[in-house]
Amino acid sequence: MARGSILVADDDTAIRTVLNQALARAGYDVRSTGHAATLWRWVSQGEGDLVITDVVMPDENAFDVLPRIKKLRPDLPIIVMSAQNTFMTAIRASERGAYEYLPKPFDLKELVSIVARALSRPRGQAKSAHDAEGEDIPLVGRSAAMQEIYRALARLMPTDLTVMITGESGTGKELVARALHDYGKRRTGPFVAINMAAIPRDLIESELFGHEKGAFTGATQRSAGRFEQAEGGTLFLDEIGDMPMEAQTRLLRVLQQGEYTTVGGRTPIKTNVRIIAATNKDLRISIQQGIFREDLFFRLNVVPLRLPPLRERAEDVPDLIRHFFTMVAREGLPHKQIDLDAMDRLKRYRWPGNVRELENLVRRLAALYPQDTITGPIIDAELEPSASSSPEAREAREDEQLATSVERHLNRYFGGFKDALPPPGLYHRILREIEGPLIGMALAATRGNQIRAAELLGLNRNTLRKKIRDLDLSVVRTPSR
Q1: Whole-prediction pTM value?
Q2: Which of 39, 44, 134, 150 could cross-link to 9 by cystine, CB 3.0-4.6 Å?
């Protein structure tokens, strides 16, 4: 007995054949067509337990058919597949009631798993839909890494779940937060952003929760905080890792109780906001260091979302460059082209400042160079070592984690050997380079006290002594002040 009836719509005969075979092997009855009209006829006749459809069909776009299907049969699960692979494709699929969106090419095992999950879900859980306005795309890229982000965002749009966005500086964390708001269920409410790193520590609580007149020196009138400003909408807490501990405690209480009091106030105020937090730090390390509350971390990290650095999705560089050139042209700057040699150099670059650095580069290219086509030598001049002193590159270096710094060092080291490999024993050479300054800093911090240095490092005292000898480190014991 078949596990269910599947309707497949795709104008590519080869794809239909592959899908038919994979679903039939999994025990499903399958009917397939290359036309949206045929799919609609089958659905309107009550056929099929699930629909799998491509977006672009020869007679009609699937996004025009989906609302009719959901209106007629709201419980019918629909899986949308597409080779367009943009953020808006994923969002429109979600908005029009699709159960899942799959960018082509996709894994057949994953498809069969999604089909089984869709058919086993309780009925009566249809999603609400709304039409997207305009064609502006807030997120750009067709890489596999970005496809995962798009799919996660599409699933989060109809929810109010708290999201923690992590990623290096310049990866677009606020863009993702704004997309979650602008295309989510709170899109009619306000989007309020606050950067914890940019506010003096003694003003953070007032900024978040507001204050009453006379609450402190200079408080000449009542002031609404960001929670009040974001009521009914989304509050984006950027650089959450820089929030001081006392403010963390108050924020945790708000998340637990759903209410807060203003600074100097006594009456609790109910709050109704969606929280999205972001950080470029590893908060688990901050927890170990005692500078971030573990219970707050778990409250905020309901749905973790990691944005990949640009070096992990170099195939998106051409799309991003075209997008930024179009954007700056709308602002009045000349539109430029990039030749293949220049594009290849841009794709090989490591982008320490990530997408923000790329956007700033495009603006410079559009504003400063008279040529209509940007060539390789121009890119070399912009990306030479002196260019790494740009503000975004400096900010990226200041914020980067140790692993990122080591990766940059190793990339330069391997690059020095061209097509050859470094001499054997690399692992121990690198460890020795790291161990030396680490142990040296620990000894300096403890004023040469090896017992305290061993405790600081988490090493046995005899092990530390051996490493000091092996590394030929000098130890100078100085008295405590």
Answers
A1: 0.64
A2: 39
